Input
Amino acid sequence: MFTQLTPTLPVTVEGKGKGYAIGVIDYGQEHALIWVTAIDETGEIWCAPNPKVRLQSNWTMGRPSQGPAIKPN
Output
């Protein structure tokens, strides 16, 4: 299932940089979510697995900057 995100979410994709999530692909319970992201620096569109995606920090919302994504076991 594809879900378009409106509004988009500011995210950081490990290994790609900061950008905006514009959609989410959900293949079901046996798979990680796939975030469709537009990378700020390059303008590229990447589909990133959930463990590689983090929300950007937001002082107003009380969300501190996060460390690198943790590898799933």
User: Anything to note?
Assistant: The mean pLDDT is 88. The CA atoms of residues 38 and 45 lie 5 Å apart. The chain has one domain: 2-55.
